[in-house]
Write a structure and sequence with these properties.
The chain is of the alpha+beta class and about 550 residues long. The protein has eight helices and 29 strands. The strands form seven sheets. The protein has a seven-stranded antiparallel β-sheet with strand order 4-3-2-1-29-28-27. The longest helix is centred in the first third of the chain and has 27 residues, at about 5-30.
Length: about 550
C-alpha cells in the first residue's frame, strides 16, 4: 500500500468519527415527544443491547392522587409485592407497635482546607453519633400466648424474638398495652367453667445490663483504694449477691468483707485484697457473668397476671394503652368499669338498665357506646365523658349501627347495616350532621390516622343474600378486602391497595397504623396471620 493511500484512509477515518459525533450531538439536542423513553445517548443510535431495556425510573403517566380525587388504583409491580409482607406466619391474637429511638455511629466525610493557599483542600473521614428510629411490632401467638417482637426492618420469621414464656392458650381476642408494651390482655373461653375469662399479664421488664465487666482489674486493691477498678470489683460482688451496697468506687470495709467471702468460696487466701491469684479468678468470673447475661437477654421473660371478672361483655383499650374499659351484664342491666393496668385498680363509671351495649374508645376524652349491632334492628350511639361521666346521645335510629370517634371526638365514623348492604357515615358532634361515604365496610376494619383521615379495609363485594353486620360477625360471610384511604373533610376516597395486590385473599379483622404512620398492620381473619403494608411505596 502506498504512503498516499494510507494517508487517505486515515483522513476518511477521522471524517467518519467527526460525523458520528455531530449526529450524536444533534440527537441529544432534539426534544423528544411525550411518552417516549427519556434516555438518550448511544442507545438511541444503536437499537440493540442496553438501548432496548425499559428504565425502572420512567414515569408511567398515571398521575398522583392529587390529580384524581376519587378512586385510584396503583398497579402493583414486583417491588410493591415486597412492600406487602407477612410479619409472621404464626396465628396472632393481639398486636401493637412501638417506635424505638436509639443512637448509632455513622461515618462521614468533610473537606479540610489546605494550610498552603496553593495546595488543594483534602477530605477526611470522621465518625459522629446520630439519632435513629426503628419500628418494632409486638404480638401474641394465639397457640401459646407467648409475646413476640419483630423489627420491621427485617420482617422474617428468623427476625422474631420471643419475649415471654407461654401464658394463655387459644385466646380469641386481646390487646398489648402499657407505656412500655409490658401488658397483655387476653380473652378466652374456659373449657372447665365454660365462661369467658379475661387475663391481664405483666411482663418482667427489669433491665439486664448489656455488659457488666467493662474494665480489667490489674492492680492489687486494698482498703481505702478509690478508683474505677474498685467500682468494677464491687459490681462483680453485687452481681454475685455478696455485696448489697451500690458500687461507689471506694474500697471500704463492707467491700473488703464481701471480697473475703468471694475468696473463701473459691479456696483462695482470704486476705481481702485483689492479689494476683484473686485477679485471675475475678477475670474468670467476668467471663462466666457475661455468658449468663447473654443467656438472660435471650431467655423469654416471666409474666405475672390476674384474672378480671368472668363473662365480660365488651372490652376496649384506651388510646394511651394504660387503661381498659369493659362492660358486664348484670340482672339490673349492665355496668361499665375502667381498669388501670399499672395499679390494677377497678372503678365503676357506667350503669344502665339496658344490657346490650358495645363500646369503642377512639378519643382519649370520651368512650363511645352503641347498642348491639344487628341489620334487623335500629340502634343508637351515645358517648360518655371519661372525666365527668356525663352521658349523652350522639345519633340513632340507624340499622345495625356501630361507631368509632376520631381522636378529638369532633366526628364519629358510623357504619349502618341491613339486608344486602353496609354503609359508612361521618357524623359531626359539632353540628349534628352526617355525611355518607360511598364505601361498604365494618367498623373493625377502620382506623383513624388523625381527625380527618381514615384507613379502611373494604370488601370487594358483599353477599346480597345476607344481613350485615350479622353475617360477618357470625362468620357466615368472609370478605376479600382492598385498602382505602378516606379524607373525611371532602368525602374523597382512594383505593391504595387492590385486593389482587395481596399474595392471598385477606379478610381484615383488626387494623392499626404504626406511630410514624409509615406502616399499616392488618390481621387476616381467615388464618389470624399478621401482615404489614409499607405505605410510603403506595402514597408518594
Amino acid at each position: 500500500m502506498t504512503q498516499s493511500r494510507k494517508k487517505l484512509l486515515i483522513i476518511l477515518g477521522i471524517i467518519s468519527i467527526i460525523i458520528l459525533v455531530v449526529l450524536y450531538l444533534i440527537i441529544m439536542a432534539t426534544p423528544q415527544p411525550a411518552g417516549q423513553d427519556s434516555r438518550r445517548g448511544l442507545g438511541s443510535l444503536f437499537p440493540f443491547g442496553g438501548g432496548s431495556q425499559i428504565s425502572r425510573d420512567t414515569d408511567s403517566g398515571s398521575g398522583s392522587f392529587d390529580d384524581e380525587p376519587v378512586e385510584q388504583v396503583i398497579e402493583l409491580q414486583p417491588e410493591a409485592r415486597r412492600s406487602i409482607f407477612r410479619i409472621s406466619n404464626r396465628p396472632v391474637t393481639a398486636f401493637t407497635t412501638q417506635t424505638r429511638i436509639f443512637d448509632m455511629e455513622v461515618t462521614r466525610e468533610r473537606e479540610v482546607p489546605a494550610e498552603d493557599e496553593e495546595d488543594e483542600p483534602t477530605r477526611e473521614t470522621f465518625t459522629e453519633t446520630v439519632s435513629a428510629q426503628e419500628t418494632i411490632v409486638f404480638f401474641t401467638d394465639t397457640r401459646t400466648g407467648e409475646k413476640i417482637s419483630v423489627n420491621l426492618d427485617n420482617p422474617t420469621p428468623e427476625g422474631e424474638e420471643v419475649l415471654t414464656r407461654a401464658t394463655v392458650e387459644r385466646a380469641r381476642e386481646g390487646f398489648i398495652a402499657g407505656s412500655n408494651n409490658e401488658f397483655v390482655v387476653l380473652r378466652f373461653l374456659s373449657t372447665t367453667t365454660n365462661a369467658v375469662e379475661t387475663y391481664v399479664g405483666r411482663r418482667d421488664i427489669s433491665e439486664i445490663p448489656r455488659r457488666l465487666c467493662r474494665e480489667n482489674i490489674i492492680d492489687t486493691l486494698s482498703l481505702n483504694a478509690n478508683n474505677s477498678q474498685v467500682r468494677q470489683l464491687q459490681e462483680i460482688l453485687v452481681f454475685r449477691g455478696l455485696l448489697s451496697a451500690a458500687p461507689t468506687g471506694r474500697f471500704d470495709q463492707v467491700t473488703r468483707s464481701a471480697l473475703i467471702v468471694f475468696q473463701e468460696e473459691r479456696g483462695l487466701e482470704a486476705n481481702g485484697t485483689t492479689d494476683l491469684l484473686t485477679r485471675e479468678f475475678l477475670t474468670r468470673e467476668c467471663i462466666r457473668i457475661e455468658g449468663e447475661l447473654q443467656r438472660l437477654r435471650n431467655e423469654p421473660r416471666s409474666v405475672t397476671g390476674v384474672f378480671l371478672r368472668q363473662n365480660i361483655h365488651s372490652l376496649v383499650l384506651s388510646p394511651d394503652k394504660t387503661k381498659i374499659f369493659y362492660l358486664l351484664k348484670v340482672p339490673q342491666g349492665s355496668r361499665g368499669f375502667i381498669f388501670d393496668l399499672a395499679t390494677q385498680r377497678e372503678e365503676q363509671v357506667f350503669s344502665s338498665a339496658f344490657s346490650e351495649w358495645f363500646a369503642s374508645w377512639g378519643s382519649p376524652s370520651h368512650i363511645t357506646l352503641y347498642t348491639a349491632p344487628s341489620g334487623l334492628v335500629d340502634g343508637f350511639v351515645y358517648e360518655m365523658n371519661v372525666a365527668t361521666r356525663a352521658f349523652r346521645r350522639i345519633t340513632g335510629d340507624i340499622t345495625g349501627i356501630t361507631a368509632l370517634a376520631n381522636p378529638s371526638n369532633t366526628h364519629t365514623l358510623i357504619t349502618e347495616g341491613g339486608r344486602n348492604r353496609m354503609r359508612m357515615l361521618i357524623h359531626s358532634q359539632i353540628d349534628g350532621t352526617s355525611n355518607m361515604i360511598n364505601l361498604n365496610t365494618f367498623i373493625e376494619k377502620c382506623v383513624w390516622e388523625n381527625d380527618d383521615i381514615l384507613w379502611c379495609a373494604v370488601p370487594e363485594t358483599l353477599d346480597r343474600t345476607r344481613v350485615f353486620p350479622d353475617a360477618w360477625y357470625r362468620g357466615v360471610f368472609t370478605a376479600t378486602d382492598s385498602i382505602w384511604r378516606i379524607d373525611t373533610t371532602n368525602g374523597s376516597t382512594r383505593k391504595v391497595v387492590d385486593a389482587a395486590g395481596f399474595p392471598e385473599q385477606i379478610d381484615v379483622s383488626d387494623i392499626m397504623l404504626t406511630e410514624k404512620r409509615d406502616y399499616l398492620l392488618i390481621r387476616n381473619r381467615r388464618d389470624n396471620v399478621l401482615w404489614g403494608i409499607e405505605l410510603g411505596f403506595f402514597i408518594r
